[in-house]
Amino acid sequence: MSEKIGVVGLGYVGLPVALAFARKFETIGFDISESRVAALREGRDPNGETESEELKGSSLRYTTSASDLADCSFFVVAVPTPVDASNRPDLTPVIKASETLGKVLKPGAVVVYESTVFPGCTEEICGPVLARVSGLRQGVDFKLGYSPERINPGDKKNTFETVTKIVSGEDAETLERVAAAYGAIVPAGVFRAANLKAAEAAKVIENAQRDINIAFMNEVAHICDRLGVRTADVIAGMNTKWNALRFTPGLVGGHCIGVDPYYITSKAEELGYFPEVILSGRRINNGMGAFIAQRLIKMLAKGGKPITGAKVGVLGLTFKENVSDLRNSRVPDIITELRAFGVEVVVTDAFADPREAQHEYGLELSPLSALRDLDALVLAVSHQPYLDMPRSDLLGMLKGGGGVLIDVKSLFEPASLPNSIAYWSL
Predict the structure, then answer these.
(1) pTM of the predicted protein model
(2) Cα–Cα distance measured from residue 74 to residue 245, given in angstroms and rounded to the nearest whole number
């Protein structure tokens, strides 16, 4: 069956999906952001993940008008699914996307959701919205599929095409139709999930598993700090065993690992089960920014530095290295805690959009040159430009060649640093 594809949402997930489909099918990419669509038409990816040549060479059509999707037979919904201030799933974007599709949905269409949701959401929430707006019958006039996204921003190896794609459908016929569409564009192949709920659960569980493993290492970091042992040295020894799991402590943010666990725990609570391990891992990971800031304050005090008015530079604000994505970054937790002690914090980032930093966190990004005469420096995000800097330039940010250096990713060897620098790594 020849499909005409409509992809709703052209962000980190939707754009690579739409570009891949456009290589095999007639494809239309829809987004509500006029500025994003305008940039893509000019060959610019606002997220910096896709090269201009690929955008300009693609047959993908971009639109902000839902009516342009009216002739599509196969839809993919790839919009954000964040959590609210209480860490409850916020389905507003996916519901609005479903309402948009409902206005153009025609009999015989398949709607596949890639957005992360809790098990049952596709059938119990999204499908009824489509039916209500379109007037069509769910499971009869249109069919539902679910294929969880596995996009990893900044990763050039594990891409949309190289990672096995989980696919599912509400019946056997739909499953094969979804598998055929994705199978045509994903060389790594597809995995047919038993049903929609199994596919939805696989997505949130794979990220919850990673979250828990990192939380364990973050707890180890707390213990090592009290022992006076460098966590990186402990991990180096541990990793010599063949079955060691190679996780490291760190700040856990972003749109997946720091968010997805709440989608499964909220559903579990609704069903009368109150998760302990998953939520304890979340609490540990969410507290790491404050822990790092407090460690810095203790080191300033031990060095006889005044706390109030101390000048601290922070290198990096995005949720991970070498991306511009600021969503759910935990670096602001460090900044907030430091400012609560009266510390002056100067923040820079090699990739983040200053306007987005202001909008999301109320933070003003400074140029790298502003990080001078510092009492302490926090290497929070290991962006490549910071790693490429001459060591003398980076350490030269500290006042008089001395002060506190907080190395969140344990990139430095303590023995290589001068005695004038008080060093700590997570």
Answers:
(1) 0.94
(2) 40
CA distance 50 to 16: 8
Q: CA-CA distance, 191 to 183, in Å (whole number)?
A: 10
Q: Is 121 one of the annotated active-site residues of the chain?
A: no
pLDDT tier at 297, thresholds 50, 70, 90: very high
If pLDDT is split at 50, 70 and 90, which confidence band does 1 have?
low
Residue 99 neighbours by CB distance under 10 Å: 15
pLDDT digits (tens, 9 = 90+) for 64-90: 999 999 999 999 999 999 999 999 999
Cβ(208)–Cβ(261) below 8 Å = yes
Choose among 277, 322, 276: nearest CA to 49.
Answer: 322
What is the signed CA dihedral for 179, 181, 186, 191, rounded to 10 degrees?
-10
What phi, psi does 197 have (nearest 5°)? -65, -40
**For residue 8, which of 91, 127, 111 has the smallest C-alpha distance?**
111
**Helix (H) or strand (E) run with residue 29 in it:** strand 26-30
Residue at 362: amino acid letter: G
Q: State whether residue 298 is helix, strand or coil.
A: helix
